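FW: tagging you since you asked about this chain on Friday. Here's the raw sequence from the shared folder, copied in full. Didn't touch anything.
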Amino acid sequence: MSRSHDVVVIGAGAAGMMCASRAGRRGRRVLLIEHYDVVGEKIRISGGGRCNFTNVNAGPANYLSQNPDFCRSALARYTPAHFVRLVERYGISYHEKKLGQLFCDRSAHDIIAMLKAECAEGGVEWRTPCAVQAVRRDDGGFRVITAQGDVTCSSLVVATGGLTVPKVGATPFGYRLAEQFGLGVVPPTPALVPLAMPPEFLARFGPLSGVSVEVEATHGAGRFHENLLFTHRGLSGPAVLQVSSYWGGRASIAIDLLPDVDAASWLCTHAGSSARVDSVLAERLPARLAREWCLAHDAAVPIRSLSDERLRALGAQLNTWRVQPSGTLGFNKAEVTLGGVDTRQLSSKTMGALDVPGLYFVGEVVDVTGWLGGYNFQWAWASGHAAGEVA
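HL: got it, structure written out here
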């Protein structure tokens, strides 16, 4: 038996629920379909269970895409302030951490409950868990074939996310559907992901697993002044997760172990000292890191044994320590997906496919990837809102 709706949204994550609620509030008959048995699971596990639901600084410069201007329209029309007002209307208490990151005081479940309530206000119907088996064109609209029967609609919104965290339901369904309707897909890769390091690096620095240090990590246009964390498999921490989105498997990453310090000049102020380089460096870095770094650079020696030229060279290496990752830890450990549905074939105002009237793509499934710190949720809210206003 086939049922008819105005709008069918596939995927009940952040973008999908936002879109469905907005369309429902406009009086559209909306059906929200989710194949996983838990709704909003990526919201629930985000931010250590407290959901970093937006960033007050979110703007186009905080996003990566093959089409970098695409995100401007949606972000300008639905800002962090808009979402904060929604959160406050539901009485959800929150706090700001560093760099504009907003978190729930209590639990990410508060955000999920809010989105469900918004959908209820819009009269949204649900099918969950319910697998979508196929999608076809049908009399100018779409026929969605599901495990619970067929559904027809004039507007179809794809909010199926990327490939990150397969254990909570991530699949390539959205990409395959885009390709079915003739849209290109920028090859998906893990982003905001820990980096694996080669055996020779791990032999030296692997035992430092758990050691954290403030650095500035740089690759290409990505430059981030945050913490780096040594792990038994390589490097992690906010600075590394951020720069991983820019790395792409190319060349090395530059790590400034002493950001805001001219390390060469600082070392030269100790010229002639009988202290070892690693002992002096331990004034500014964890002692274990200082020692291993000096051993790796043949510098675990008294400072007075080194020329000014050698001290300056070591300082330059401290400010630009080049490391070559061997890869990433993959989609299982990634926060988001880089790449996705090619936005050059979508309207930046509506998220609709330019050549397929009535077909929309929102959230992580499209080629827009934010920085760490609430930016990807803001894209979910903004893109879902944009489609929900017109679908």
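FW: The longest strand covers residues 149-158.
HL: agreed, and Residues 213 and 228 are 5 Å apart (CA to CA).
FW: great, closing this out.
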